[in-house]
Amino acid sequence: MELAGARVVVTGGTGFLGTFVVRELQQAGAITVPVGRRLHDLRERAEIARMLRENHPDIVVHLAAVVGGIGANREEPGRFFYENAIMGLQLLEECRLQKTPKVLVVGTACSYPRVTDVPFSEDDLWDGYPEATNAPYGLAKRMLLVQAQAYREQYGMNTIFLVPVNLYGPGDNFDLATSHVIPGMIRKFVEARCAHAPRVTLWGDGSPTREFLHVADAARACRLALQRYDDGLPVNIGSGHEITIRELAGLIAEAVGFSGTIDWDVNQPNGQPRRLLDGSRARAALGFAAEVPFDQGIAETVAWYESSVAHPGSARNMVVT
């Protein structure tokens, strides 16, 4: 699909990934309409209908989501399921009714079964129940894949679905009550360094592995999917680099200049044992491969946090998702 001159509504367009996607699409010549919750509450179907009527988009990119780490998912599983499901279900239905030419839905690697052969193939999505600590969120996103595929089959809608791994980068959420692992670690280590604290405690035992993707790479994948992809099969979006949480902690501690001891609270959950996606479909269908080296991305994120967050506040236990 040609993006130059296309009118693109980006739900969650004022958020972390959304701001990068908006910038990426603008550079491709698109006319973007970033939609945040203050402008339209996507839990209300009438608001979705009004938003589409007012903007007449050629494309809708659905990024809006309620997200967080293990702690947030454990505290509010009902909210994480309902709000993520209802926003997407109603948005896709209104896009169908208003005949939106193309809709991109961004899912989550949390939808994969807890134990899956590594690397995770898109064909593995239905082989089991997700990791319990974030299953409601992951299943809500799975339901949107079902809807996108069903609407393509019955109504001929051009709906496509991407499955990204954990994102990170400048502008991430550093609120330790809801942050993911990289911003959580950065904040804890920076605060410990500034307070001359001798040690930092992290959740779990550090053995799980994760794959991380810089937010700029994820935004580029969204653009490529809009330009090059028209199929009902979901597409993994990752970096191809797997790292243990223990190794990650050491890397971030070094990047922020924390030289103290790292303790592991084994009474707290580890989350999914391993997470690494098979990126072969993305390479073949989109021509996508990650470009930002991980150490460079970590350095950029640390620099952004230290220069942009003046008052980090008190540290709390970080979370791993």
Characterise the protein shown here.
The protein is an alpha/beta fold. The protein has a domain at 7-167 and 212-237: Rossmann fold (3-Layer(aba) Sandwich), CATH 3.40.50.720. 41% of the residues lie in helices and 16% in strands. It contains 10 helices and 11 strands. The strands form 3 sheets. The chain has a 6-stranded parallel sheet with strand order 2-1-3-4-5-9, with helices on both faces. It is globular and about 60 Å long. It starts with 6 loop residues before the first strand and ends in a 13-residue tail after the last helix. Mean pLDDT is 93; it is low at 310-321.
Q: What's the structural blueprint in terms of helices and strands?
A:
Blueprint: E1 7-11, H1 16-27, E2 31-35, H2 45-55, E3 59-62, H3 70-75, H4 77-97, E4 102-106, H5 135-155, E5 159-164, E6 166-168, H6 181-194, E7 199-203, E8 209-214, H7 215-228, E9 235-237, E10 242-244, H8 245-256, E11 261-265, H9 280-286, H10 294-308
Parallel strand pairs: 1-2, 1-3, 3-4, 4-5, 5-9, 6-8, 7-11
Antiparallel strand pairs: 8-10
Helix pairs in contact: 1-7, 2-4, 4-5, 6-8, 6-10, 8-10
